[in-house]
Write a structure and sequence with these properties.
Oligomer: heterodimer
Structural class of chain B: alpha+beta
Strand order of the largest sheet of chain B: 1-13-4-5-6-3-2
Helix content of chain A: 55-70%
Strand content of chain B: 25-35%
Largest sheet of chain B: 7 strands, antiparallel
Shape of chain A: globular
Strand content of chain A: under 5%
Shape of chain B: extended
Number of helices of chain A: 7
Order of helices and strands of chain A: HHHHHHH
Helix content of chain B: 25-40%
Distance between the termini of chain B: 66 Å
Distance between the termini of chain A: 18 Å
Radius of gyration of chain B: 25 Å
Structural class of chain A: mainly alpha
Radius of gyration of chain A: 16 Å
Largest sheet of chain A: none
Order of helices and strands of chain B: HHHHEEEEEEEEEEEEE
Number of strands of chain B: 13
Chain lengths: ~170, ~290
């Protein structure tokens, strides 16, 4: 349990840092004002390696932070989206990853689509803002490609963190 | 009892998930609740500290790099200028420059006539600000400035900026923290401002068209104005409603749409400001 808690806290800190990075420095690499969602990529990594519990809690907390620094979406919007993604990707925990390149990219691309779809549904259900259907928004496609490009790099970096390797060691009985 | 304990331990992840979702839904439903608004404002104030820090670090490096680049450029320009001076003995070339200067001075004169009275109005204060962050998601283009409640900023205050020597309306403050504030830009679909043509004096309402377009829309202009409005005419804030002071340039006429069955026209405006290169931002504090 202590290992999970440590992984959760570390995940929250890293994702919060990624969010601050997204809102400040990443503007220098924006394409048509669109930036990659680093916190989402990190959430996919965490959930698929550490499980649903770590995924949903870190997703909820990071989503709340994103709600604090966003407008006009209300508190709970990003928290709900990221909690769902964190929980459902937790089912992959311990599953076999065929390769270190295409499988992570596929997971993140699917997560980006789910994020856009969930966000669009929420705006319709709760009548928040006036968002275009996400498939008609060019920014969605730019973010999709951008996330796919950043995935292998981030996964490689996160793999090097000892706390995130614990589960794998336990499963191999080391 | 043993069964309940066993049920909880087997399904703990799912139960926590359901609990978190309920919290999120309740927060979204009650988003106008004063307590939640305060929590959001407090959270924004707290995390903006990190945004200010990160922005400061990046500004240090970009400013250093810009200074070095500028120094090299200035040196090259000096050498080029010296060479040009030797060639400048033909008066015809100077006539062209003088003509451009006259046009620029005319623009400045218009600006000074409209804005200087505002600057010297003792009831109005201009608080300089810098952009420290933009919204992390890609859905909205809300901008975070480094001035907040402690600087006298309140929601609803207009924000202006400069581009190529011209001042233009950037947007309005929507949320204020202790040291930061969030600004809704003029191209946001929820943004409205009452305007008037600088030369023709016809009034209308400008509304943003969303983040996916470079233009804003001016509506409710009487069709009588068609013969007096030219492409490139400048539209300024009218001062109605006392929210935006009169005289702040908003945009230039780009295209005019006039349907036969309607009594008013719709005019597409190109914003005065280039939002990718905003400089010298000021929050207008009225009643300071």
């Amino acid at each position: 349990m202590g290992t999970k808690l440590k992984a959760t806290l570390l995940a929250i800190i890293i994702m919060a840092f990624a969010l601050i990075l997204q809102s400040t420095l990443l503007k220098f690499i924006a394409i048509y004002e669109t930036i990659p969602d680093l916190s989402l990529i990190i959430l996919i990594f965490i959930s698929s390696r550490q499980g649903g519990m770590v995924g949903e809690i870190s997703g909820f907390t990071t989503g709340l932070i994103e709600d604090f620094i966003s407008f006009p979406l209300p508190i709970g919007f990003h928290a709900l989206v990221k909690t769902c993604i964190g929980f459902f990707y937790g089912f992959i925990e311990g599953g076999m990853i065929v390769d270190q390149l295409f499988m992570p990219i596929l997971l993140v691309v699917i997560a980006t689509i789910i994020k856009a779809l969930l966000s669009w549904i929420l705006t319709l259900v709760f009548s928040i803002g006036d968002m275009t259907f996400f498939l008609l928004n060019y920014k969605f496609y730019i973010e999709l490609v951008y996330n796919a490009v950043f995935t292998p790099v981030l996964f490689k970096l996160l793999n090097a963190i000892p706390s995130f390797k614990v589960i794998e060691k336990e499963k191999r009985g080391l | 009892m043993q069964d309940i304990k066993s049920f909880f331990s087997k399904n703990l992840t799912a139960l926590i998930f359901i609990f978190l979702i309920i919290i999120c839904v309740l927060c979204i439903i009650n988003y106008e609740n004063e307590a939640l608004v305060r929590i959001k404002s407090a959270g924004n104030s707290f995390f903006s500290i990190f945004q200010i820090g990160m922005s400061g670090v990046s500004n240090f490096f970009t400013n250093t790099f810009s200074s070095v680049t500028e120094l090299t450029q200035v040196k090259d320009e000096l050498e080029a200028a010296n060479k040009k001076l030797e060639k400048y003995d033909k008066l015809l070339g100077e006539v062209g420059l003088l003509r451009n200067e006259i046009a620029r001075l005319r623009e400045e004169q218009h600006y000074l006539e409209e804005v200087i009275p505002l600057l010297y109005d003792s009831n109005v204060k201009q608080v300089p600000a810098e952009i420290i962050a933009r919204q992390p998601d890609n859905f909205f283009s809300i901008i975070t400035l480094n001035k907040g409640e402690q600087d006298g900023v309140k929601p609803g205050m207009p924000v202006v900026a400069f581009n190529n020597g011209m001042q233009g309306l950037m947007g309005k403050v929507v949320t204020v923290g202790v040291t930061t504030s969030l600004v809704m830009p003029i191209f946001n679909e929820s943004f409205y401002v009452s305007v008037v043509f600088r030369d023709a004096q016809y009034e209308g309402l400008v509304n943003g068209l969303g983040e996916n377009t470079d233009f804003v829309m001016l509506r409710y202009i009487n069709k009588k104005a068609r013969s007096e409005i030219r492409y490139g005419d400048i539209v300024i804030t009218s001062g109605m409603g006392k929210i935006y002071p009169r005289g702040i340039p908003v945009g230039k006429v780009n295209s005019i749409q006039s349907k036969s069955y309607e009594t008013s026209m719709e005019i597409t405006l190109e914003p005065i400001l280039d939002f990718s290169r905003l400089k010298n931002i000021f929050i207008i504090v009225i009643g300071a």
